[in-house]
Automatic annotation (TrEMBL):
Keyword Cell membrane: yes
Organism: Endobacterium cereale
Topology within the bilayer: Multi-pass membrane protein
Protein name, UniProt field: DedA family protein
Spans through the membrane: 12-30, 50-71, 140-163, 175-193
One GO CC annotation: plasma membrane
Length: 200
């Protein structure tokens, strides 16, 4: 997996980073915890500027959260519940999960968007209740931008500071990230199999 990410970045440069981060937010095939540190490492070789790396990662990630926000905004709470009830087996999300997410958003609001962008998985899903609650797009983007910038910058700088040592770490990153992906797929399959339908 690390080799695939590396190849895309070397061939497409900043566009490759943005594309990977966009996909990571729309449907997370490759975690940002792998993408951004590797991009930061490439910056130490002079392939890209570290600020360009952070900007590309942030832009791609921001573009990736918009579909979820507008989905929540268009469908509304009841629509999302029905969507979850109809396609919940494959989303591994029930109508009750939608209610719980909406309740958390009502309690924490803006803070949940800001902090949620720093938490794996949550950073994508938090966009849906934000859209459902009709959070102003300007506020949503501003809060998401701050959280996203902090997250992508931290990961990129970590890879940058590792410098040449990353080549040693990379020997362990690929099998570990592949193992994590296998576990995630296994958990997903388990949740699909054990999913219990609910009425919307």
């Amino acid at each position: 997996m690390e080799n695939l990410v590396h190849m895309l970045m070397e061939k497409l440069g900043p566009v490759g980073i943005a594309l990977l981060m966009f996909l990571e937010n729309v449907f997370p095939p490759i975690p940002s915890e792998l993408i951004m540190p590797l991009a930061g490492y490439l910056a130490t070789r002079g392939d890209m500027n570290i600020f360009v790396v952070i900007s590309a990662g942030t832009i791609g990630s921001m573009l990736g959260i918009l579909p979820w926000y507008f989905l929540g905004r268009k469908l509304g709470h009841d629509g999302v519940r029905k969507f979850a009830a109809r396609h919940g087996r494959w989303l591994t999300m029930t109508a009750s999960d939608v209610d719980a997410a909406a309740d958390r958003f009502k309690r924490h609001g803006a803070v949940s968007v800001l902090v949620g962008r720093l938490i794996p998985t949550v950073r994508t899903l938090i966009s849906v209740p934000a859209g459902v609650a009709n959070m102003p797009i300007g506020q949503f983007l501003a809060l998401s931008f701050v959280g996203t910038l902090v997250w992508t910058a931290a990961l990129a700088v970590a890879g940058y500071l590792l410098g040449q040592a990353y080549s040693v770490v990379a020997d362990y990153v690929d099998p570990v990230s592949t193992g994590v992906l296998v576990v995630l797929v296994a958990v997903y399959i388990y949740r699909v199999i054990t999913y219990k339908e609910e009425r919307a």
